[in-house]
């Protein structure tokens, strides 16, 4: 049983005063944010220092200047306040419990997970799901997420992994672009702009290898999200190399047309990852099972929708 010492558990009011003053470097602005008087904020800071037995600010002409200890303390306190706020919001939104917080790649969230999430919620009405978009790895220790979905080689250390599905890609262009620049063989790509994604530097090389050729030097735009790449391709700005769960949607709806061989396998896969302290989190266990069922359909040849 954990025994918590009162001295090291200042009240929320004291901690919020510290957080606001350090963030704004101003008692006046902090007081306005907290809807308190300046003198009240100053007294709260003094009470916090008295409780901890540590001086956190230098006083200069009625100004509070945070020292190194205050800056370090505030970083940790800000994370703790975020966790408390998220937990409180979750219990209000779902008083029966069962909240799952996910960090997901932006386009994957809107174009793959989003259309399927209703099935999960209908099957498990007691679970509330909070989804935020993130690119790249995150620090589970400093965030409030239970799990994340990311793309990579399974090289995220210190977490548990569930491989969802491998990546296959299709090169796509706007119908008008295809008419202006007919592409019937790899050589026809020479000199054409090939749109680039920051997080997938090797994907064009993989695609050329899958087509049985060697890459051409590319001069296309560089962007950080597939949504921007799709719009750029639709606008005729170049060739987009899209994961098939995206390519199939755009091709079916007639905004883009495929180029050469489709469904080319490349390095990398989509993964669900979660920290060790969430292994037994019941909503996450339920979500993992459901997600495994969804991706098994893909591995057995079911069409991505």
Automatic annotation (TrEMBL):
Q: Which PROSITE patterns match?
A: HTH_LYSR
Please report the organism this UniProt entry assigns to the protein.
Octadecabacter antarcticus 307
Q: Which UniProt keywords apply?
A: DNA-binding, Transcription, Transcription regulation
| Family, per entry | Belongs to the LysR transcriptional regulatory family.
What name does this protein carry?
LysR family transcriptional regulator
Residues in domain HTH lysR-type? 10-67
Alphabetically, the GO molecular function entries are: DNA-binding transcription factor activity; sequence-specific DNA binding
- Keyword Signal present in the record's keywords: the answer is no
Question: Which GO BP terms, alphabetically?
Answer: DNA-templated transcription
């Amino acid at each position: 049983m954990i025994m918590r010492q009162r001295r090291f558990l200042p009240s929320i009011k004291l901690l919020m005063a510290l957080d606001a003053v350090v963030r704004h470097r101003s008692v006046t602005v902090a007081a306005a944010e907290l809807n308190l008087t300046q003198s009240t904020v100053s007294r709260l800071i003094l009470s916090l220092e008295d409780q901890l037995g540590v001086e956190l600010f230098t006083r200069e002409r009625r100004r509070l200047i945070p020292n190194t200890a205050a800056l370090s303390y505030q970083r940790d306190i800000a994370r703790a306040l975020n966790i408390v706020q998220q937990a409180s919001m979750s219990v209000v939104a779902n008083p029966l419990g069962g909240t799952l917080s996910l960090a997901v790649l932006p386009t994957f969230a809107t174009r793959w997970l989003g259309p399927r999430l209703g099935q999960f919620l209908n099957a498990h009405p007691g679970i509330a799901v909070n989804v935020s978009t993130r690119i790249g790895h995150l620090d589970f220790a400093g965030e409030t997420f239970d799990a994340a979905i990311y793309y990579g080689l399974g090289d995220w250390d210190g977490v548990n992994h569930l491989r969802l599905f491998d990546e296959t890609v299709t090169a796509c262009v706007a119908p008008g672009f295809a008419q202006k620049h007919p592409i019937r063989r790899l050589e026809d790509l020479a000199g054409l702009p090939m749109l680039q994604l920051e997080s997938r530097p090797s994907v064009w090389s993989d695609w050329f290898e899958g087509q049985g050729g060697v890459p051409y030097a590319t001069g296309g735009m560089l962007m950080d999200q597939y949504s921007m790449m799709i719009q750029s391709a639709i606008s005729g700005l170049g060739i987009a190399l899209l994961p098939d769960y995206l390519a199939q949607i755009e091709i079916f709806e007639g905004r883009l047309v495929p180029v050469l061989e489709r469904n080319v396998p490349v390095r990398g896969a989509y993964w669900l990852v979660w920290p060790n302290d969430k292994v037994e989190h019941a909503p996450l266990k339920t979500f993992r099972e459901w997600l495994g069922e969804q991706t098994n359909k893909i591995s057995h040849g079911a069409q991505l929708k």
